Amino acid sequence: MLKRIRSSSLGALLLLAVSVGGATLACSNNQAQNAQAAGPQAMPVKVEEARATAVDDASEYVATLKSRDSAVLMPQVEGQVTEILVHSGETVTPGQPLMEIDPLKQQATVKSQQSSLAAQQANLAWAKQQYERAQGLFSAGVVSKQDLDQAKSTLDSAQAQMESLDAQVNEQQVQLHYYKVVAPGNGIVGDIPVHVGDRVTTSTQLMTVDKPGSLEVYVYVPIEHSSQLKMDLPVQVLDSEDKVIANTRISFISPQVDNTTQTVLVKARVANLKDALRQSQFIRARVVWGTHQSPEVPILAVSRLAGQYFAFVAEPEKGGSYVARQKPIEVGQTVGNDYEIRNGIKPGDKIIVSGTQFLLDGVPVIPHS
Q1: Of 149 and 32, the one with more pLDDT
Q2: pTM for the full model?
């Protein structure tokens, strides 16, 4: 009797365990089905709205800076350099002596001409006396009219010869001044390629005198863009980090095309207030042809795969949810920390800017700014 009761209790316990296990298994299956139906969990992402901004239509060129007040000094006479009176980098004033070329030969020429002039002045005085004497004798009837005319001709010839010699002396004295090279204006002395003892000619460069401040940008624009050139077009001077260090406008357009390079020279004035630019410096110049409206997106939001650029956009779904959509885009210029988008994104799109490396196309997201 006792064995039967124990057997019945054991069977009841087994039945209860099987029932509980089946209920637990059924509950687990329902949770898995519900999780599968719910799909992947939405990922929070930071977004920025693509806004249309004005973007410059521009072309960039290598340009040259030249001083508008730079003088290249060359001698007007030939000779040997005997003295250099300034140093490179020295500030000079108008008329200040800079260099001297051996003047001894010219001084001798001037002295010779002055001696000839003094002799001729004596001849002129004698001819004048002879003419005055002839006038008195002619009035007294002692000499003929022919003798008087001869004395007058001698006087006129002596006068003309003296005037000629006087002009030659002045010319040689002016020439003597050229043996001392002076500053044409205020400025700073540049490189001095000659030395004391060098023989120079009229084609020898002695030095440069640059007036600090005003410069001009020389930009050589290819002929295919020449039809777009016009006065007052904006020009930006850039540094090595693409920062604009000067804004200016075209002030000159050459009417001719360079036959060698097939380019058109344009100039723009630059105020070098901080003395950051130098004469003959190569710089980058951007000519702005116009502007257009394009959306911009942060560079960090753009990825590149096999030469194609992509960006993720948070697109709305039914019920107010969002999914990430990977869109191929065409980028244009770099504007600060943004890309200009020429195709693939329109103004108002919500650009995902965080966690893009973890996203897949179609993944649910929760956008926040």
Answers
A1: 149
A2: 0.55
